[in-house]
Write a structure and sequence with these properties.
With 402 residues, the protein is of the alpha+beta class. The chain is 32% helix and 26% strand.
Length: 402
Amino acid sequence: MLNPDYDLAVIGGGIIGLATALALSQRAPDMSIVVLEKEQGVARHQTGHNSNVVHSGIYYRPGTLRARLCVEGVELLREFCREHGLAYDRCGKVVVATREDEIPRLETLFERGVENGVQGLELIGPERLREIEPHAAGLRAIWSPNTAIVDYARIAEKYAELLRERGAAFEFGARVTGIRESPGMLRISTDSGEIRSRYLVNCAGLYADEIARQAGHKPDVQIVPFRGEYYKLTPERRELVRGTIYPVPDPSFPFLGVHLTSTVDGEVEAGPNAVFAFAREGYDWSRINPSELVGALRYPGVWQLVRKHWRVAAYEYYRSLNKRAFVESLQRLVPELRDEDVVRGGAGVRAQALNPDGSLVDEFVFISSERALHVLNAPSPAATASLAIGRYVAGELLELTS
């Protein structure tokens, strides 16, 4: 009988796959690990295309895994950045209610944050808001002084560096094309050859459900891609934002709304919106993958989502194509902004798990078998909580191996 090449194969070189491999290298140092990544480097998709905010934990329902891992993950990430000399700017965040009907939702968020154990939260009025963010406008706000900004791509690269130091292998350009079980191992077919491993963790993000299907599972959820597009403030107008300024989110969606975020490199990003993408890696309107688009449109959950929220979806597309509409959303938060103050930035694609009834999954989703653990949904605050999630997934995997 053939011996496996590795004890564990981790599919996905994003921040969750790397954090999981890192946690396993710490808890089981004798375990041989390989990270399989279809790109030529780490953090090429969701990890490298987000707003780089370290969320404090005010958005998530108390008692959920998201809430617990976020609060735990903030502490771990802060210490990790300190230990390794990585940027961690505790700039703070205001979540601003600009209409009377948003105030009850704002108060609910505040109560959630307190119940989740988020430190330092304050409910503030317009005068205190202007002290913190002089150019922001609002009736009331939450002040979260411990919200921070980082560079998640650099953090992921540090995870990868530590993994190499601990003997982990990396296979780049290794898109997984098939998974089958043999006695004592899994045989993983990739574009660069076959990998044999005793166990598997699937952290493939935008393709996590497809990998699970290759392994013989029939997930109840399907990954649907939503593109988030960004603008940037021009250099001479960056002084309008000191830290991060968020709206009160719509409770029917897991997206946080168009907001303004300082970056560790001194820029200010504005966005993202949330539009259905025509490919799982559809970073702009020109990227269309016919087979992926057809696969999404065949899924009943997509049509249920459209039926329930077609007005919101139509507005998101309009705002995507109309700069004036995008700026109007930003002006609710910072009225002084003008069209000429913002220029087009980049975009990211969020892997959103969708139920057949059209509801957006707002919690982590895992499925497992005798030799594999699949992370089917790792929603925000996945990057914030990456080290905590990695520890959690590592614990679940080690239960499989025991």
